[in-house]
Each structure stands twice: as C-alpha cells, then as structure tokens.
Fold:
Amino acid sequence: MRKKIVAGNWKMNMTPTQAVELVNTLKPLVANDEVDVVFCVPAIDIIPAMEAAKGTNINIGAENMYFEDSGAYTGEISPKMLVDAGVKYVVIGHSERREYFAETDETVNKKVLKALEHGITPIICCGETLTQREQGITIDWIRQQIKIAFLNVTADQAKTTVIAYEPIWAIGTGKTATTEQAEEVCAAIRICIGEIYDQATAEAIRIQYGGSVNAGNAAELFAQPDIDGGLVGGASLKPDFGKIVCYK
Ligand code: 13P
Structure:
C-alpha cells in the first residue's frame, strides 16, 4: 500500500513572519500520521517554517532548486543548501516555472537527477494545457514529459520519487479536473513508469493530483486507485488544508 502524500505549494506567498503564523495555525489541523504532509514554501521561508514545524509531522519542502552544487549562479538555491536546512522534498518543473522561467523537460531531468543525488525527494510536475486536452494529445504529452524527466534515473531512485499531475487549465482556476479525468491520466502515468522500469516501480511510485484541490473534492480524488494524494496551491494557505490532509 502506498502512503498518501499531501503537499501544499505556497507559491510566491507568505513573508517569513506570515510563514511562521501559518505553520502555527495549521500544525494542529494537519496532525495525521496516515499521510505524509509537506509544506513547500518560498526559499526565504524554509528556515523559519522548519523551526515552527519542529516536533510535528509537517515536512518543509522547497519549491525549486538549481541543478548544480554551488558556483556562479546568482539568485539560485543549491541542493546542498536545502539538505543543510533539513529539506527532504522539492517541487521540480511546476508549470509556472516552465511558463514564466523557461524551464524545460531537459532542465527538469537535470534537477531530478541532482535532487536524487542529494537524497531529496523530487515532486516532479507534469500537465497539459487546455488546448492540448482539446486536441486529444494529453496522454501523449504527459508520457513525453515523464520519459524525459526520468532519463538516467534508476528504478530504485524512481521508486522514491513523487509525480504531480497538474492539468494547467485546472491550476488556480477553481476548475478541478473531474475525478475520471484525473484518474485516467494518473493511471496512464503509472503505466508509463511500468514501461520505463517494471511493475514493482510502477506500484511503488506515488502520483499526486493537483489543480483546484479543496476540502470538498479531496476525498473523492484521493480515493481513486492511482491518485496517492495531492499538490495543493490556494487551499494550502488556509485552515481548509487541514480538511484536505484529514480527508477521510
Ligand atoms: P491550486 O490548488 O491553487 O489550483 O494550485 C495548484 C498548484 O499549482 C499546486 O502546485
């Protein structure tokens, strides 16, 4: 049985002061040992959020990292810095990074390899645009994103990763994919992992759904056989996140 993983993606929200307040507010609400709970926060919030979350079940994650250990890369955050700060998870290749910061499947692959090298679990994002969905190429597109993201990743490493399927048209729009649409793509991702590796890897890997997840739809989405939790944007900044984590 795969353990569910529910991660909040704070995006570019919350000052360090607000981050501490939010962790303190959510602490009692997300206490659920049946689920892995991760708050992926802006880089500057990592250390104060980590302090505030000490002694709780909350894992603090990053929203991005660079694919080199150190050097002349002004403004970037290295995996070594994340490890030193105690970070165990990092979101890689979110559609907003791809759209606004020119990330590609190739840079996603480099970052995935680098995170794994440092023992950080990458939450690898994929997803189609509304146009791609209307063109009927969703599954082909996602399979390509997955195949490139996992180049040179071993089966043992792949088993430890998390994939987040986030249809771009469902992000921040209030328009959730139907349970059937979400399950269809998550199942296709698992098949693709099985083709790249083997059945055992496909069964071990955790696949989240993301895109307008809220307290009202989480239970139905997370009950699907191939949906192992969620990557939550807007609702992760509110007490409602507790209801998503404690969806049962
Ligand atoms: P929303 O939950 O706000 O739609 O955002 C989803 C997302 O992008 C999480 O990474």
